[in-house]
Specification:
The chain is globular and about 55 Å long. The protein folds into two domains: 167 residues, Uridine Diphospho-n-acetylenolpyruvylglucosamine Reductase, domain 3; 97 residues, CO dehydrogenase flavoprotein, C-terminal domain (Enolase-like, domain 1), CATH 3.30.390. The chain contains ten helices and 14 strands.
Length: 264
């Protein structure tokens, strides 16, 4: 790798200060994407600012029906949290099926959403649950946070602190995973919330995670897998690559959505 300076931040303010003084700094949490990218010489940050040890950025809290997850909480911690399993088991189950055990014990929810890989799982959950992303500077709705492929609304030197959402009446996630990477070729998170049915799709859209409005309308009238049978999911706007073309992914979206609804 290229030469870089490593810093272990003890607070969010210190992390922001270190980022501000770096020529080309990057936040390091789990490093499951950043470090391999550096090893491949596709990124060469001047400084790495490790936020994994900052108090208040780790752990899950469920209070009064609101779930808050610190940005530095690992996938394994999310998956194993008993309070989260009770409040919204779909998110815990989602986390328990990310990658492999090595990834789950190091990768973090904040790192995942900051990277916003178009096939990542958490973005679908946060979008479907109407989550709020809190940073050192502001709070953003998930719909405003996820902008496009590998792109978010984060400003330079802005640090994700936590994510929060209200526990839904029902929710479930189903994905068709690439057998090698375990990333979603199509993943659908469905939630029955106080604002009605919400359906978010990851892994399939050519502009990243998105909501499926037609399925939401169908489920508002009838929360059943059969309700979305007549919803048309076209190939336009779908990803097409060596793993599956746009038509294949469009069909996967319908299949995964039906499985998710049936699993609630």
């Amino acid at each position: 790798m290229y030469q870089t300076k490593y810093h272990k931040a003890s607070s969010v303010d210190e992390a922001v200060s270190l980022m501000g003084s770096a020529d080309d700094g990057k936040i390091l949490s789990g490093g499951q994407t950043l470090l391999p990218t550096m090893k491949a010489h596709l990124a060469a940050p001047s400084d790495l600012v490790d936020v994994s040890g900052i108090a208040g950025m780790n752990g899950v809290n469920v209070s009064g029906g609101t779930v808050t997850i610190g940005a530095a909480t690992t996938h394994a911690q999310v998956a194993g949290d008993a309070a989260l399993q009770s409040a919204c088991s779909a998110v815990a189950d989602l986390a328990g099926n990310i990658g492999d055990p090595a990834v789950r014990h190091v990768g973090t929810i904040g790192g995942s959403i900051a990277n916003n890989d178009p096939a990542a799982d958490y973005p679908a959950a946060l979008l479907a649950l109407g989550a709020t992303i809190k940073t050192n500077a502001r709070e953003m709705a998930a719909e405003d946070f996820f902008v496009g492929l590998f792109e978010t609304a984060l400003d330079d030197n802005e640090v994700i602190v936590s994510v929060s959402f209200d526990a839904p009446a029902k929710s479930c996630y189903a994905k068709f995973a690439n057998p090698a990477s375990r990333y979603a070729m199509a993943g659908v998170f469905v939630a029955q919330t106080s604002d009605g049915a919400r359906v978010a799709v990851t892994g399939a859209g050519d502009d990243g995670v998105y909501r499926q409005a037609d399925m939401e309308a169908a489920l508002d009238g009838n929360w059943a897998a059969d309700a979305i049978a007549g919803v048309n999911v076209g190939a336009d706007g779908m990803l097409s690559d060596m793993h599956g073309d746009a038509t294949y992914r469009a069909n996967l979206v319908k299949v995964m959505a039906a499985r998710a609804v049936a699993g609630c």
